[in-house]
Amino acid sequence: MTYQVGYFIGSLSSTSINRTLSRALIRLAPDDLEFTELPIGNLPLYSPDFDADYPPEATALKEAIAASDAILFISPEYNRSIPGALKNAIDWASRPWGQNSFDHMPAAVIGASIGQIGTAVGQQSLRAVLSFCNARQMTAPEAYIHLTPGLIDDDGTVNDESTAAFLTDFMSEFRTHVARVLTVIPRA
Ligand SMILES: Cc1cc2nc3c(=O)[nH]c(=O)nc-3n(C[C@H](O)[C@H](O)[C@H](O)COP(=O)(O)O)c2cc1C
């Protein structure tokens, strides 16, 4: 049995270090996790006016989440909070009212920053939102990645042994968390 993991990259940057981090995480993850990116850059800005008739991009997002067993958020911190593009995607997925795509969904949060405190504050904002959305978050380990030049190559190769071990452990714990949540709350 494999688990389908949908993952958000919270950055629209063509040179995103969080995308680089995502490649490392996928390389280091247990073999029974399969990954599909959930794109956010094609979504219009959410408005309740769309609730009666979602645009195809937003419908596709909700369908992709429904096809996932778990969601992984890999995001930078913008001004000590959630990047707007990611928050917009979450808002789309959480609506229309009563059709919240994150309800009971196993989830985890990780992020990379060029700064020393590595997305710690932004992740707290994201966790608060996911909490309201009733996602079943992994609370530990936390992972705040200070991504210095050369630490991870573009293809996701991690050049530091302790970082590789930490990220491997994070993904192993995530797999355990997903299995635990789905044992108690199987996906419909
Ligand atoms: C609008 C904006 C706000 C930012 N705010 C923060 C911040 O609050 N904390 C932080 O550590 N870095 C901040 N940064 C720097 C990011 O860590 C850096 O740009 C990083 O490369 C973003 O991740 P990405 O490459 O995946 O897009 C900010 C960058 C931008 C563009």
Automatic annotation (TrEMBL):
Residues 5-145 form the NADPH-dependent FMN reductase-like domain. GO terms for cellular component: cytosol. It comes from the Bacteria. InterPro entries: Flavoprotein-like_sf, FMN_Rdtase-like_dom, NAD(P)H-dep_reductase. GO terms for molecular function: FMN binding; oxidoreductase activity. This is NAD(P)H-dependent FMN reductase. It comes from Nocardioides terrae. The lineage of its organism: Bacteria, Bacillati, Actinomycetota, Actinomycetes, Propionibacteriales.
